[in-house]
Amino acid sequence: MSDFLSSYGVVDARREKWRNRILITLLVLTVAGLSGFFFFRTFFEKQTMNRFLALLAERNYAAAHAMFGCTPETPCRDYSYEKFIEDWGPGSLWSDPHYAEIAKVRYCGDTVIFNLFIKGDDVNLVVTKQDQQIGFAPWPTCTGTIVEMEVQR
């Protein structure tokens, strides 16, 4: 009879310990998955924007203009290379990307809007998720939530 009483509740305690381990593991995996989702949902668009600013810093304007989807083979009707140089070239207000600060990044479903401040001027650029092309945002904000607030120097 003493053997029965000494092992009484051991199975229940072991079962409860395994259940707690499983619940904690599921909680950790859920938090890690959600964190990864929110981190990586604008990751590639940020890389595209950083590559665009780096091309401007290198003064490689042809490659930077190509990121707008404008190439010599398929020129843009509304944003010619001359207009691009006027906006981003050596004599423009936005010519030095070292002064560019990414103030807001907004996730808008199939696009990501970057609110840039360059030498006190506000520029809204949009990166499409499908083809990673840059363009001027037709709207300053979207109905989506602000993903993050950051200042990049």
Describe the structure in your own words.
By secondary structure, this protein is of the alpha+beta class. The protein folds into two domains: 2-37; 42-149. It has five helices and five strands; from the N terminus they run αααααβββββ. It has helices spanning 2-6, 10-40, 43-57, 61-66, 81-88, and strands at residues 100-107, 111-118, 121-128, 134-136, 146-149. A five-stranded antiparallel sheet has the order 4-3-2-1-5, covered by helices on one side. The longest helix has 31 residues, at 10-40. It is rod-shaped. The mean pLDDT is 83.
Kindly list the characteristics that best describe this protein.
single chain; 153 residues; alpha+beta; 2 domains; 5-stranded antiparallel β-sheet; 5 helices; 5 strands; 20% strand
Q: Kindly report the average pLDDT value.
A: 83
- What is the approximate shape? rod-shaped
| Number of E-type strands | 5
Query: Largest sheet, order of strands side by side?
Result: 4-3-2-1-5
Strand content: 15-25%
Global Rg: 26 Å
* Amount of helix: 40-55%
Query: Termini, distance in Å?
Result: 75 Å
Instruction: Give the helix/strand class.
Output: alpha+beta
Number of domains: 2
Helix count equals 5
H/E element order: HHHHHEEEEE
Give start-end ranges of low-pLDDT stretches: none
* Major beta-sheet overview: 5 strands, antiparallel
